[in-house]
Each structure stands twice: as C-alpha cells, then as structure tokens.
Amino acid sequence: MTRRIILDCDPGHDDAMAILLARGTPEVELAAITTVAGNHTLDLTTLNARRVCTLAGITDVPLAAGCSAPLVRPLVTATEIHGTTGLQGHTWAEPTVHVISEHAVDLIIELVMAAPGEITLVPTGPLTNIAMALRREPRIADRVREVVLMGGSYTRGNVTPAAEFNVYVDPEAAAAVFTAGWPLTMIGLDVTHMANATAEVLARIAALGTGLAAAVVGMLGFYRDRQLHEFGTASPHVHDPCAVARVARPEFVSCKEARVEVELAGEFTRGMTVTDFRMRAAVTPNAMVGTSIDDGAFWDLFVAAIGRIPTRADA
Length: 315
Ligand code: RIB
Ligand code: CA
Known about the structure:
Blueprint: E1 3-9, H1 13-24, E2 28-35, H2 42-55, E3 63-65, H3 79-82, H4 104-114, E4 119-123, H5 128-136, H6 140-143, E5 146-150, H7 165-169, H8 171-178, E6 184-187, H9 189-192, H10 199-206, H11 211-231, H12 241-248, E7 253-262, E8 273-276, E9 287-293, H13 295-308
Parallel strand pairs: 1-2, 1-4, 2-3, 4-5, 5-6, 6-9
Antiparallel strand pairs: 7-8, 7-9
Helix pairs in contact: 1-12, 1-13, 4-5, 5-8, 10-11
The site of alpha-D-ribofuranose has 16 residues, from helix 1 and helix 7.
C-alpha cells in the first residue's frame, strides 16, 4: 500500500538522501516537501531542496518553505558538518524547481485536513514547522496517520553529550510534537548510528553509473570527510533516510513503546529526549522508539531507490 508522506527537512546531506530514498521507493508517495531552518539557514535549506528536486526530476511535488527560526531559541546550524552551502560535494546547476507561494505550515495543514488518516509526517529537521502547524490547527493531531521523525536519542547526543541536533535546535517545538497525542515514532541516533555509508556502500552506488549516483557519491563523500573531521568516524551516519525507511519498510526498524519527555530547562541537558521504557500504570506511553535497523536491508533499499531515479543531465 502506498504511503503518502510530507517530508519536512533541512537539507543537509542526509536530508537530501531522504528525499531521494522517498522518490525512488515505489511504496512511498511524496505529497509535499517542506523546508525548515536547521542544518543551515532557511534560504539555503530551501535552495538545497530545490537543487535536489531538480537533480532528481521531482517536478510534480509541491515544495514549500517554512520557518526560519526556532519557536523560542536562536537558530543553531551545523555548517561544520554540512559545509558553508549546506550541500557541498556536487557542482549544482541553477535549480529549475521552485517553491510554491504557500507557507510550509499552511501546506501541511491543508494536505492533512484534506485527507484524514492518509498523511504521514516525516520530519528530518528541527520540528518548528510541525509545532507551528499544531498551534495553527490542533485538529491535525487527529487527522495525521502517523508522525515518523528523525530526531532524539535514548543513549547519547551529538550536538551535546545529551541532545541530538534536531531536538536541541528547537526543544520547545519537539516538546509540543511529543505531547500532541498523535501516533509518533522516534527514529533517533540509536538507530541512525547503525546506518553508515561505508566505502562498500559508496562503491555500490557508484556502480549504478548514472549522473545521479555520481552526485550522491560526491555528496556522501563530502559528508564522510566532515564527520571524520568532527567525530572521527570513518563512515558517516546517514540519519534522515532511516525515517523514510521506517515508513516504507517498517520491518527494517525495531521499535519499543516508551514515554519520551523533552528536557527544556537543563543547563547541560537542554534538548535531551528523556526516554522511559518502563511500562508503569502511572505513565502513558507517547512514542514508539527505534532501537535498531537492519542496515544491510536499508542500504539495499537505498541503492535500489537511487537506481530507479532517472538522471537529469543538466542538474
Ligand atoms: O542529528 C542528526 C540530524 O540533525 C539529521 O537530521 C541532520 O540532517 C541534522 O538535521
Ligand atoms: Ca536533517
């Protein structure tokens, strides 16, 4: 059965891979792509989304720009990982895919309200747009099929020892998303640190021999070098497509029910997703939390998806 998703992203190298995985997987239909400030400022995350859509020939999916800053805190970006443009590693042509005039928050509300129970929200950046949509139209909490987000962690952080980047950047938005009462799955670092773009994976992608595959290898190569420099990891964690994979192939990702609270006040723990797997009568679970991914099956899915997308020579 086809899953209709809205991919809310902050491209960003791994966001770009999430867009491509969604596009190249037949069981997933991109109902919309929306952008948010996170890995870089909104103008660049949106330009990068336009670039990826142009490269992959995604001309039939509405692309809308969203919020340029977190709900409360000043924006923190990740240029040390994603570079000065947010998507280095490929020489980009001038994008021909443009954003629509509608704001991302309004587009999310419009699509969800028009198709009760059909739309899965897949946020892969800070949750600002999603929280704003909830504030503007609380009824989406009852109309969304599911929220499957890349963010959080129950074992470690990456931007601080306690917090994962997407939740750290806008913890107030994350708190609103985790307490909205809708079906929610958290694909955190506990899962995504198993999805690593090894040299063997890059070789498989390169062997596809298309212009798109070459662009993907270039982007992942840059991303690998930056993660090696920042974290000492030889193979980069490719976080965001893991959330798409959970939608397309739920069986690839093991999950456990839990109560997740977002820390807002901690001096050292702001943005921590405090995860309680203990099933106690007094505690209401609010999320399925990813605990592992079948990384071999994940990369098979990803390589197959890239192989299905025809390449635009001019992008
Ligand atoms: O912590 C990893 C997440 O933060 C990914 O979504 C990455 O793109 C950044 O947004
Ligand atoms: Ca992201």
